Amino acid sequence: MSYSPFRIDVPDAVLDDLRARLARTRFTDRSGDQPWQGGADPDYLRDLVSYWRDGFDWRAREAELNAYPHHLAVVGGRKLHFLHVRAVRPTGAPAPLPLILSHGWPSSFVEMLPLVDRLTDPARYGGDPFDAFDVVVPSLPGFAYSELPKEPLTRAVLARTLHELMTDVLGYRRYGAFGGDVGGVVTGWLGALYPEQVAGIHMIHPPFPASFDARPLSAAEQEYLDAEAAYDETDGGYSAIMGTRPDTLAAALVDSPVGLAAWLVDKYRDWSDNHGDLANSFDRDTLLTIITLYWATGTIGSSFRQYFDFDHNTPRPDITVPAAFTVSTEPSQANLPREIAERACTDIRHWSEPGRGGHFMPLEEPDLLAGEMRQFFTSLRP
């Protein structure tokens, strides 16, 4: 298969329309007494929209994104967008192990850029130049410039798509995989389905087994599952509506940039390790770059497809390739016992609970995460 260069180029008309919509925004009142008590805080949104309209420089951000080599390939008859960044390595260095880094929801390839820099050119960040990797960052199908498949968007379909990108399109015979959230689930599927080609997997959200029936739950496992269920009672509304009425929600968000921003920043605040202040984890330019990509591509609705198609998934086989975990610090991961992951993975070689870095760890703690990834994946080189 072949692939072609690609550049991000949002038309001026789209940006002009965006600014006009932002200027006409109607804001709601806060529901509770405290900021963020009822979701995206109106005062925060007012400030963010004001900056989005009058201070945010999309063209500058677009140029920064285009400094990376973007490509489009046709995989399974549909367009797939990806970055392919070669390792910077000295003469005599071993051939680099290629890595594929997969984002989740509500995210984009932008989340992985700090890791790209640190993994392809570690010497620039004080690391060993011999520990450089080739790095591939796809936009998952339905996100940004990647099209949805014609079939239901299951985890197996996502894994097959990314595997074909790495092997048939890019010609790699062996590679490592990293991901978080949905990208992490797909990473686990890559390891389960393609153990001959996948050297190892690294995730920030450890996988559940396909079934807990193999042995009784331990006290720690039961306690965690009960706590997760209780947390879902307060946080699960977003996935319930995206999984059952995605078109209804998407009709509102694809037409209102502020509605779109509210839907996304609510999760960036709830799931990151920001101690109550988004600015502790993300600058406004980064958040607005991700939000503007969703807006310009009109892909918020298609990003929901993985939720709507969830019931089409089949049980995942056991993961037998070497596995590493840098467990994120977020409510859904609190006190997650390693033994749950051991039910899913037969060869866990690294387990770390650093106590910092949330759902979007590549953006929040890139030095920490890149260091652990280099340590694990360099151990898998031939």
TrEMBL record:
Coiled coil segments of this chain: none
Family the UniProt entry places it in: Belongs to the peptidase S33 family.
Record-annotated Epoxide hydrolase N-terminal domain positions: 4-112
Catalytic residues (positions): D181 (nucleophile), Y307 (proton donor), H359 (proton acceptor)
Keyword Hydrolase (UniProt): yes
Organism: Micromonospora cremea
Any one Gene Ontology BP term: epoxide metabolic process
Record-given protein name: Pimeloyl-ACP methyl ester carboxylesterase
GO molecular function, one term: epoxide hydrolase activity
Keyword set, alphabetical order: Aromatic hydrocarbons catabolism, Hydrolase
Gene3D superfamilies, A to Z: alpha/beta hydrolase
